[in-house]
Amino acid sequence: MSSQSSDVESVVSAVKWIGIVLGVAAVVAVCTIVYMCCYRTDTGSAQSELMDGLLRRDQLEETELEDEGKGWQCVVCGLANSAKRKTCLMCGTSIGFLMSTELGRRKSSRMLLRNNSRGITGADVAGGAGEEEDMEALRGGDSAQATLPSTAEATSLAGPNGESVTDYHNLRSQGFVSMYDATGRLTWTKADEVSIDMESFGKGLDNIDFEGVMALSFRMKKQWFLVQLSRIATPVTEAVAKLMTRERIIQQSLQLAEAPPDALHAYLKITFDGEPGIDAGGLLREWFGIVCKQIFSEKMGLFVPTKGEDMSYWIDPLSDEKNETHLKLFRLAGILIGKALFEGLVLDAHLALPLLKHVLGIPISFSDLEFLDEELHRNCKWLRSNNHVEALCLTFSVMLENGTEVDLKENGRNVDVTDENKEEYLRLVLEHRMLDSIADQLQEFLMGIYDVVPKALLSVFDYQELELILCGIPTIDTADWKAHTHVRYIKPEENRKGNITEEEQNGVLQWFWIVVEGLAPEERARLLQFVTGTSRVPVEGFRGLMSSSGIIHQFTIQLVTRGKKEKADLLDLPMYRDMEELERSLTMVSQMEVFGFGLE
User: Fold this and answer.
1) Helices (H) and strands (E) in the chain, counts
2) Any idea what the CATH number is for the domain that residue 559 is in?
3) Which range marks the domain in which residue 179 is found?
4) Which residues form the RanBP2-type domain (predicted)?
5) Strand 570-574, strand 555-560: pairing
6) How far is the CA of 343 from the CAs of 230, 233, 276, 337, in angstroms?
7) Alpha carbons 482 and 471: distance in angstroms, whole number
8) Alpha carbons 550 and 346: distance in angstroms, whole number
9) Total structural domains within the chain
């Protein structure tokens, strides 16, 4: 009996202990769950509060238009400019430009008169209090496709005394656009209108009145565009990290050409192997600048400079002979253009005007030939205007730079150009230069762009606006730079004795801006590139500098006792003894080829 009693007591004791252990475990589990819930709530709240204090590009007001409506409207391109600007931000026209004396002069590609093809009036461009309401009203449209006239008889503008002045410089011949045929290849098609394929964006654009968006001012169009991009962007928390080595930067970047479109909507975070640096946007811009410089270089063999007054880049028809992987590289080039628009990067290279028109789907006409080859355009104009062209002994063929003769039509080299068929010849020359000679390359280039930014969204801009968004402001305004710079004073742990006063630090800051103001434009650009990774300023000005996560990230000066720069967009400014020493340091940086963000 005693043995049985002992066994029973052991069982009871074991059950008690098991109950105690299970009870404790249950309490711990409940406490853990409650703690995690509270922690997540607090963390989410903290992150939400943190994000609430940050801005995206689409939330940033236009710097150039914030002087409470005070300013002037450019008579050439229609852009509303800040009163402090003496030249137009978009086309470079002087505020004192007189139309009566300038209408007879040849316009450069940066100063072409905006014609009536987009239906934009002075009131539309200047903007007004009702534009925000107009933005909402644009969602009420019921069209499946938006079309807009793209050819014009002439341009009528108001002269200096209020009279009507007509400019025939932009008088256009038949326009053509590149469109995909049933086999998926680009073809040359007559077009009098800009046609917007809203299916390129998928669902969500059915209720948008694209004609209405096009009629908005540049400021409002850009804001609308950025809002649309933010809707397709991958969340910042899912940014894609890329480790790059400078020696293999093109090969590693080519991985982007194999990525699906959805993956290209994620923000990039770049790190260079073996180099210090936290990508707050500067490393991304440096990577972008290096890759673009190589992509547009003569050595790469993808693009060639145009032959005209304003040098820009056009696709090399002979790229297949210069680079075996040229088509894949053109896809990468297109993706880079798309990422520039998507992530607020600034492109140093200017695309030729006809190439911008290809991107936007705007018809290309005979006059656009001038922006590829001025001499060819001049010769073609002479041919169109004069008779007895048989004496020139021309045939329906062209000679490429490598010596290859290409027929413009079947057996063209044996067909003479005459007064009767010269219009056909000129049309075929235009088609060859604008599409046939570069069709494969152009197709990859455009597909790369549209994989990042849907074509329908780009179609609301004209070519001048697209170039301004891509290439940013051409000059660096020191006043704008200074006004939108955040200053951090020496950290307390570096100034424990308090022997460096705030007044002394402000003195060094003053020296810095005096020296920057005195730098030559190219030196100022090089200094900006050293700090931010880019030598140009986005269209919003210095307010528009972005981090790699799509958030506005101000240029920052950190005053330090010793300089060691490890973070992009942050300039560590040591406490120099005098302005001459500071000037020597900045001049050294601005005159040397600097890579990375390390400065001892």
Assistant:
1) 20, 17
2) 3.30.2410.10
3) 59-221
4) 67-93
5) parallel
6) 10, 10, 23, 10
7) 21
8) 14
9) 2
List CB contacts of 540: < 8 A, sequence separation 6 or more.
57, 60, 62, 63
Q: What does the buried/exposed string (b/e) look like for 17-26 if buried means 16 or more CB atoms within 10 Å of the residue's CB?
A: eeeeeeeeee
| pLDDT tens over the chain, length 600 residues | 555 555 656 655 665 666 676 666 666 666 665 555 544 444 344 344 334 445 555 555 544 444 445 677 776 566 777 766 667 766 666 676 544 444 344 344 433 434 333 433 333 333 334 444 554 444 444 333 444 444 434 444 444 444 443 343 444 456 777 777 777 777 777 776 566 665 555 555 556 777 788 888 888 898 899 999 988 988 866 777 788 888 899 999 999 999 888 889 988 888 888 876 655 567 888 889 899 999 999 999 999 999 877 788 999 999 999 988 999 999 999 999 999 999 888 888 899 999 999 999 999 988 999 999 999 999 999 999 999 999 999 999 999 988 899 999 999 999 999 999 999 999 999 999 999 999 999 999 999 999 999 999 999 999 889 998 998 877 888 888 898 898 999 888 877 777 888 889 999 999 999 999 998 887 888 888 788 777 777 767 787 776 544 566 778 898 888 655 545 567 888 999 899 999 988 888 776 654 443 333
Provide the token pair at 498: 């308090």
Alpha helices in 484-536 (DSSP H): 502-518, 521-532
Say which residue the tokens 């050595």 belong to.
299
> Is residue 381 in a domain?
no
Residue 485 inside a domain? The answer is yes
SS3 content of the chain, % helix, strand, coil (to 5): 50, 15, 35
Give the up-direction half-sphere exposure of residue 398: CA atoms within 13 A in the CB hemisphere. 17
* Domain-ending residue, one of 197, 221, 245: 221
**Token pair for 536:** 């140009």
d(CA 327, CA 330): 5
Residue 496 within any structural domain of the chain: yes
Distances (CA, A) of 377 to 110, 365, 370, 566: 18, 12, 5, 51
468, part of any domain: no
DSSP state of 234: P
Q: Which residue among 169, 202, 221 closes a domain? A: 221
**Which amino acid would we find at residue 192?**
D
* CB atoms closer than 10 angstroms to residue 142: 7
Cβ burial 330-352 (10 Å sphere, 16+ → b, else e): bbbbbbbbbbbbbbbbbbbbbbb
